[in-house]
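Below is a filled-in request sheet from our internal design queue. Each sheet records the structural input a requester submitted and the sequence that came back. We keep these sheets so that new team members can see what a complete request looks like end to end.

REQUESTER: design group, bay 2
PRIORITY: normal
MODE: inverse folding
CHAIN LENGTH: 332
BACKBONE (tokenized):
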């Protein structure tokens, strides 16, 4: 059983470790990867119960259920883990989408294979080769496809839209269903996964790393210029200052001061986050120092002080996109 467990668990786990290692910007923290693995495992447990209910309720043969119903259900549950990460601003680029998507699929595959190890312990070695190098990698790859497509659609639209997850879910379910059909043979499907999945993930990494560098170059200049205007006292001569002048009558003096402090602090933290990303990309270890930690605490205090209305008022200046919120998370 040790050999079967190793074949069932090690290939997908090794690929996940490789994905985390290949991320030169270190956008995803190990603790978040572990939490996502656990989320995928919980999705597998939920799928076990839901599949049982649907098998009894629909009355389909097991073969048809595994080809048409299970892929939709299981990719929906795995996708729920990714949706939660998006809502919590834990995904900013395609790189971390691919890593976290594959992590959720890995957690799902690990729990599923451990379950099968207990109920079909007498299965042949060929079965475990298919489950380890085929089914497990398929679960990770399908969920990575879900996360990559969902993040791409969110980036294209500029903000979170729930319907962006529908085509991503259908694409992941179609990938899952195609594998379960075993159009040639189980071994043939396994070989197809091994041939197609690594190049897809590699191309995603190459494209996303280029996007990260482009974003850093453009966003850094904009943040630095606005921070320079604030520090030099020339903010009133800029478009941002003109905008603030139009909204000053909506807030009392104390809140206006907090708005300006929040604006300046947010910009400085964004620049620190970008600097930390560049340092990690060049191999330097970056630790959160006491000063930055204090700035993050102060930012949370100012958020409560200005309230939702104040944050909305600053949105035209700070452009508080999902990526802006994500980079503050990566720093703290």
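RETURNED SEQUENCE:
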């Amino acid at each position: 059983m040790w050999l079967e467990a190793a074949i069932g668990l090690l290939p997908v786990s090794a690929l996940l470790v490789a994905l985390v290692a290949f991320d030169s910007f270190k956008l995803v923290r190990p603790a978040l990867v572990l939490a996502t693995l656990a989320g995928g495992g919980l999705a597998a447990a939920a799928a076990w119960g839901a599949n049982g209910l649907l098998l009894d309720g629909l009355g389909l043969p097991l073969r048809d259920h595994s080809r048409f119903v299970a892929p939709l259900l299981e990719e929906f549950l795995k996708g729920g883990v990714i949706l939660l990460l998006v809502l919590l601003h834990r995904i900013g680029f395609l790189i971390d989408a691919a890593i976290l998507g594959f992590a959720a699929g890995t957690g799902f595959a690990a729990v599923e294979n451990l379950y099968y190890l207990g109920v079909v312990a007498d299965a042949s070695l060929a079965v475990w080769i298919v489950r380890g190098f085929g089914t497990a990698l398929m679960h990770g790859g399908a969920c990575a496809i879900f996360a990559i497509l969902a993040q791409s659609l969110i980036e294209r639209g500029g903000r979170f839209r729930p319907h962006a997850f529908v085509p991503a879910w259908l694409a992941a379910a179609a990938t899952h269903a195609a594998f379960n059909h075993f159009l040639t043979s189980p071994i043939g499907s396994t070989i197809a996964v091994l041939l197609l999945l690594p190049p897809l993930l590699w191309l995603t990494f190459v494209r996303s790393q280029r996007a990260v560098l482009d974003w850093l170059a453009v966003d850094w200049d904009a943040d630095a210029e606005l921070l320079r205007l604030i520090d030099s006292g020339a903010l009133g001569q800029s478009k941002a200052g003109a905008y603030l002048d139009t909204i000053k009558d909506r807030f009392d003096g104390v809140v206006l001061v907090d708005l300006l402090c929040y604006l300046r602090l947010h910009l400085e933290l964004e620049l620190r986050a970008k600097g930390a990303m560049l340092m990690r990309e060049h191999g330097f270890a970056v630790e959160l120092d006491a000063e930055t930690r204090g700035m993050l605490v102060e930012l949370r205090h100012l958020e409560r002080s200005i309230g939702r209305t104040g944050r909305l008022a600053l949105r035209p200046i700070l452009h508080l996109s999902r990526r802006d919120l994500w980079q503050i998370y990566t720093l703290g």
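SHEET NOTES:
- The chain has two domains: 2-211, 233-331.
- DSSP finds eleven helices and no strands in the chain.
FILED BY: M.R.
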